[in-house]
Design goal:
The chain is mainly α and 186 residues long. Helix content is 81%, strand content 0%.
């Protein structure tokens, strides 16, 4: 008996459709990270660049558990089980950790806006496969907005305004919250 690509492709497509439906297109993670980026922006404004850069660097440590919590509280059923897709999700998440050495170097060099910019761009790149995973352009749109916002804020930071990092964090957070709302309503 021959097992061709169409059988496995159908299995993957079925898995992705169920995953998107059960998890509301991944809205929980968009909302969670939207909130953590907003908090990082607030910390930046209230306590300065250094504290804000650390908040941007570590906002994911709160974002992941919050995203998991929101997803579990709002899921319409259990997550579909597929060991290969579970491994893919782990690799997608773990890949972001590779930016930490660079971010730490930037903090040591007091390049605080660069820390937020690097973290925002890693987030944007990280989102691209989730557009496929959840079958929605929301993740692509959010990634594009965050990438353009990051480039714009870095370009206008010629005067070394300490609030530009806060602007980047708040803009990223607002983009993710809007994306989460769109993902929920789709």
């Amino acid at each position: 008996m021959m097992s061709g690509p169409s059988a496995s492709t159908t299995d993957v497509q079925d898995y992705l459709e169920v995953l998107a439906e059960v998890n509301h297109n991944g809205f929980g993670f968009l909302v969670a990270f939207g909130l953590t980026w907003l908090v990082a922006g607030g910390i930046w404004l209230r306590f300065g660049e250094k504290a804000g850069a650390y908040a941007a660097l570590f906002q994911g440590t709160a974002g992941v558990p919050l995203g998991l919590l929101l997803t579990s509280l709002t899921a319409t059923a259990g997550r579909p089980d597929d060991p290969s897709m579970n491994a893919l999700s782990i690799y997608l998440g773990a890949g972001q950790l590779l930016v930490l050495p660079l971010a730490i170097v930037l903090i040591v060099q007091h390049r605080y806006l660069a820390v937020a910019a690097v973290m925002a761009l890693v987030l944007a790149v990280h989102f691209v496969p989730y557009a496929w995973l959840y079958g929605t352009p929301v993740y692509l749109a959010a990634a594009a907005v965050v990438a353009v916002l990051t480039a714009t804020v870095v370009a206008i930071d010629l005067s070394r305004e300490r609030s530009h990092g806060a602007l980047l964090c708040v803009g990223t957070g607002a983009t993710l919250l809007l994306g989460g709302l769109a993902a929920l309503l789709l």
